[in-house]
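[User]
If only I could read C-alpha cells as easily as an amino acid sequence. I have put the entry right below:
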Amino acid sequence: MKLFQKTQRFCTLSLAALVLLGNSSFTSGNHPQRPQKSEKPNIILIMSDDMGYSDIGCFGGEIETPNLDKLAAGGVRFTQFYNGARCCPSRVSLMTGLYPHQAGIGHMTNPNENFEQHDYHVPGYRGEMSPQTHTLAEVLKTAGYTTLMAGKWHLGMEQKTQWPLQRGFDRFYGILDGASNYFQPAPPRGITLNNENISTQDPHYYTTDAFTDHAIQFIDENHQQKSGQPFFLYLAYNAPHWPLQAPKEVIDKYRNRYREGWTKLREERYQRMKQMGLVDANWALSKQDIFNWDTLPPEKQDEMALRRAIYAAQVDRMDQNIGKLVAYLKKNKLYDNTLIVFINDNGACAEGGDLGGGKKENLETKVGFFLSYGKGWANASNTPYREYKHWVHEGGISSPFIAHWPAKIPQQLNGSLIHHYSFLPDMMATFVDISGARYSSNKNGKAVPSPVGNSFAPLLSGINQPIHKQAIFWEHEGNKAVRLGDYKAVMTWEEGKTHQWELYNIRQDRTEQHDLATTMPQKLKSMAAAWQQWADTHQVRPWEQMLDSLRANERRQ
C-alpha cells in the first residue's frame, strides 16, 4: 500500500516536498512569548468517545457524516493513528504529550463516586493527571493562545486543582467524569461551567448540542474581545459513549437500517474500505467475534437493531454539530487559518457483553445510565480489525484521524490518505511546532518529563517520510504492544492464563491474522526486550500487582 494515497472518493494526488509548517520550539524557558497575531493558526481538536474505526463515512461507514466527510475531502486522513486503548489513558497522553503512566493514569481516573478507587499509590497509577506535567493548554498559553474546552474531561476531579481551569484552560463547559446521561446530566455526573457545578433546566437539553453551543460561544467571545488572538479549542464529545441516547428524529433515520445484522454490515464496510484505499486488498477481514445474527429470535433482533440505530444517531448528531461549528468559523472568516483535527479516544466498546448492557425498556427514554450496544456491533464498528477498547490489537488502538487546514495543507493533498503511523503524544509536538509555543523542562522548580511524540506537521505539508524511527509502546490492564516500523508485537493479558507475545507485519497483515512469533523469534525477542526496557523506565507496573491494589481498594469501600 502506498504511503500517500488518494481514494476513489476524492481527486488525484500530486506529491510535493514542501516547507514544514512551523518551527519546533521545545526549550527550557519559562517565559511566555509575545503572540504574533497574524501568523499563528487557531487550533481545534475534536475527540469522539468510544467510536469505532470505520463508523464515519470517510472511513467506510454507512452513518451519515457529511461534515466530517467534507473536512476529509478538504484535508487529509491518517489511516494509522493510534490511541491509548481506553478513555482516560488516551486523554492524559493527548493532553500531556507523554505515555499515560508517566502522567499518573496508567489505568483509570478516580470516579466521582469513589476518589480512592484507582489510586494504587505508585507514581504511574494515581488515578489523576500528575500536577508535575504540562498540558496542551498550559503550553499553548506561552504562544499567546486563548484556551477553551467543552465536553468530557476525565483527567481528575476530586480537587479543583485537577480541573480544566487550573490546568491551563480559560473557559470550560462540560462533564468532569467519564460518562453522563445525555438528556439529564445530574450530580455526581453533572455539568460544570468553569469552576462551578450547574444544573440543566432546558427540556430539550442534549450534551452534544450543549458542548458545541458553548464551544462556539467561547470562540465568539475571544473573537469579539481579543481580535486577532489565536485560540485553542478542545472539543471532547461524549458521543457515542454509552448510555445509548439520542433525539428521536435522528434515531428514526436508522430505525430499519440494521435489521440485517452485524455480519452483513462488516462485509459491506470491508468492501467499501478496500475501494476507498483504507484497507489493503491483501488483508483478510478478521474473524467474526460473535455468533451469527440469524441465531437471535426476531424480538431480540429488533432490540439489537434499535440499539445500533441509537448509536448511529449519536454519531450523526455529533457530525451535525461539527457542521454547526464549521459554519460559524466560515461566517466569521476563521476557517482558513484554523487547523481542525478529529480523532477518537479508543476502539469501539464491547462493554456490556455480547448483546449490550442496560434494560431494553430504557431505550428511547431520557432515563438510564449504562445502556450499551454490545460486542456484536462493536465488532462491526471496528471493521476490519481485531479486539476492542481495553485491548491493544489494532481494533483497540486505531483511531480515524482527519486534519483540515486550508491555509497550510496544500490543495494537492486534499482528500489524500497518509499511511505513516502517528500516535497521541504527537499532538503536543505538532501543536508546539506550528504555534511557536514553549515546552519547559521544569515546573515549580522540578523536572517535567520530556515529550515522547514527534510533530506530524511535515506529513500535512506533503513530506513523504515516517515521523517515527523509534519504537512506540502500549500497556493497559496487562495488554501490551510495541510498534517499530512495519512490525508490531502484541500480547493479551487474561488472569490465570499464560501470556504469549504475538508478532505481525502490519504493512502486510494489519488485521493481525498471521502470527510470525515462531518464524521470526529473534525479531520478537528484540521487540519484547524493548517493551520491557520501556516499561522499566516509564512507571509501568505488572498488572497483577495493580489488580491486587484495585481489589484492596474495592474491599475498603
Summary: The chain has one domain: 42-470. The first helix runs from residue 66 to 73.
